[in-house]
Design brief:
The complex is a heterodimer of chains A (250) and B (270). Chain A has 11 helices and no strands. With 250 residues, chain A is mainly α. Chain B is α/β, with parallel strands linked by helices and 270 residues long. Classes of the chains: A mainly alpha (250), B alpha/beta (270). Chain A: One of its GO terms (molecular function) is transmembrane transporter activity.
């Protein structure tokens, strides 16, 4: 009884199902995986850019900019990502196209990947703003003051002192954000973008080999996380140069 | 009180030497707290001005106003004859009117902080070349040659590739002095440079500062080290509750203090 159960789970044809070329579905999964990585990297990069601008704006900007950023981070963090994705994928292009129509221009098409990057990047940006703001606040004031005292202008101060000094405080939060960005790409399945989750669902639905395909997808997600951890560890080690090793400072 | 110099200079500060720092009627308020209540101060080239006074007398604030790390509420500040242009900030205080000007002025003032403030993500030599290379536009190779000379001078050449976190407080402060010297400062500003050091490390830092004083560098030194101030200063300014209570030569200030406050202060810090 149990033997046959596991046998059916293991599905002797697993390797055939996951073969990289049709009739195997492995190729589709890998394509989805690569798409997911692409969107994840794009969204994370966009989020990082927004976050840098947002954090410095919130800390050093004028009252108007600070308030606008507060509205942005509050709204974006309040609304579920899925809603934002649907909004940016369906509602925003519709709005733009109506505007373009009235102005007499042709309509635009928002591509799935672009909408995905923008939607996820916007969400990422709100969280990154807060992560980086916290990291900047953790930089000892004397570090920044020393830069000012020697005549650095605000741009140089940010580039040469504040950014490198805050990095060790930002990396754990940013690492979280990267993993969230990558996993968030699964949400794009709802708008029909061929990322890993949608490819998996299609493969599983067609072959009825749900267990095999969703396990395979899980392994791919895990694989990326493990690789990410190694890379993040290296970046963190580099960013913490000049600090006492963590183990010794305990 | 007039700002005439009563000191008998320890080294050749002539009456005709240019005025490096000129502060006139400086006020600084932090909210309701009136920290500086009309302070005037002058340092000519080659002067070593020691600012002494009790805790909360405003001596650090005065020093920090000179390079606008604190914006004065009102007053005039001239560095090398150039008046720092201030504009109202809308809250009854001032801001530097010209960011470029204040950056240029700052880049030739060598500031040494109480808590060293070496940049932790840079090695010692990277700290020393940072401002010459990135602010003053010195070629990196040249800056390194200069930095090595300065680090050798403060006895830290062999530590040049070490990060600040791995240095003692005294070493960090000597490194910070090298960083300040690297900008070829017209004036060195010391803000209680030994106050956060362990007692046994104070000597090595005072030794370096004393050498600089003896070679005729213009310095303004906020300090609690009275014996040291008496040794190296050409002039001592005693601040009390935001005002210059008394100023004069080290011998006059420490040997025959006139005001009662100064007499009390000297008895107390002995």
């Amino acid at each position: 009884m149990t033997d046959s159960f596991f046998l059916s789970l293991a599905q002797t044809s697993m390797f055939e199902l996951l073969a990289p070329t049709p009739p195997g579905w492995g190729g589709n999964l890998v394509r989805g995986f690569i798409n997911s990585i692409g969107i994840g990297v794009g969204a994370f990069a966009l989020g990082l850019l927004i976050g840098i601008g947002g954090a410095f704006g919130k800390l050093y900007g004028g009252p108007v900019r600070r308030d606008l950023l507060q509205v942005y981070t509050t709204l974006i963090r309040a609304v579920p990502e899925l809603v934002l994705i649907l909004l940016i994928y369906f509602a925003v292009p519709d709005l733009i196209n109506r505007l373009l129509d009235t102005l007499g221009y042709g309509r635009i098409d928002v591509s799935g990947p672009m909408a995905g990057i923008v939607a996820l990047g916007f969400v990422q940006g709100a969280y990154a703003t807060e992560v980086l703001r916290g990291a900047i606040l953790a930089v000892p004031q004397g570090q920044i003051e020393a830069g000012r005292a020697f005549g650095m202008n605000p741009t140089m101060l940010m580039r040469r002192i504040t950014m490198p000094a805050m990095l060790p405080f930002a990396i754990p939060g940013l690492a979280n954000l990267w993993l969230v960005a990558f996993k968030g790409t699964a949400l794009l399945a709802v708008v029909g973008f061929n990322e890993l989750t949608l490819e998996t669902r299609q493969a599983a639905g067609t072959t009825k080999a749900y267990f095999t395909f969703f396990m395979a997808a899980g392994v791919l997600y895990l694989l990326l996380t493990l690789i990410s951890n190694v890379l993040i560890g290296r970046v963190e080690h580099w960013a913490r140069r000049g600090r006492q090793p963590i183990a010794e400072s305990r | 009180m007039t700002a005439t110099i009563m000191a008998i200079p320890r080294h050749a500060v002539t009456d005709t030497a240019a005025e490096a720092i000129h502060v006139q009627d400086l006020h600084k308020k932090f909210g309701a707290l009136h920290v500086l209540k009309g302070v005037s101060l002058s340092a000519r080239d080659g002067d070593v001005v020691a600012i002494i006074g009790g805790s909360g007398s405003g001596k650090s604030t005065l020093l920090r106003c000179i390079n606008c790390l604190e914006n004065p509420t009102s007053g005039v500040i001239r560095v090398n004859g150039e008046e720092i242009r201030l504009k109202p900030d809308g809250n009854g205080s001032t801001l530097p009117a010209d960011r470029k000007q204040i950056e240029r002025v700052r880049s030739r003032l060598g500031m040494v902080f109480q808590s060293f403030n070496l940049w932790t993500h840079m090695t010692l030599i990277e700290n020393v070349i940072e401002v010459p290379v990135h602010v003053l536009g010195v070629k990196r190779e040249m800056a390194i040659i200069e930095a090595e000379k300065l680090l050798a001078r403060v006895g830290l050449l062999e530590k040049r590739h070490v990060y600040p976190a791995f240095l003692s407080g005294g070493q960090q402060q000597r490194g910070a002095i090298a960083r300040a010297l690297a900008v070829q400062p017209r004036v060195m500003l010391f803000d209680e440079p030994t106050s956060s050091l362990d007692p046994e490390l104070i000597g090595e830092v005072l030794g370096v500062i004393g050498d600089l004083a003896r070679e005729g560098r213009t310095m303004i030194l906020v300090t609690h080290e009275m014996k040291f101030a008496r040794e190296v200063a050409t002039r001592v300014v005693f601040l009390h509750e935001g005002r210059v209570e008394e100023e004069g030569s080290p011998d006059a200030i420490f040997g025959s203090p006139k005001s009662e406050r100064l007499q009390q202060f000297i008895r107390r810090v002995g």
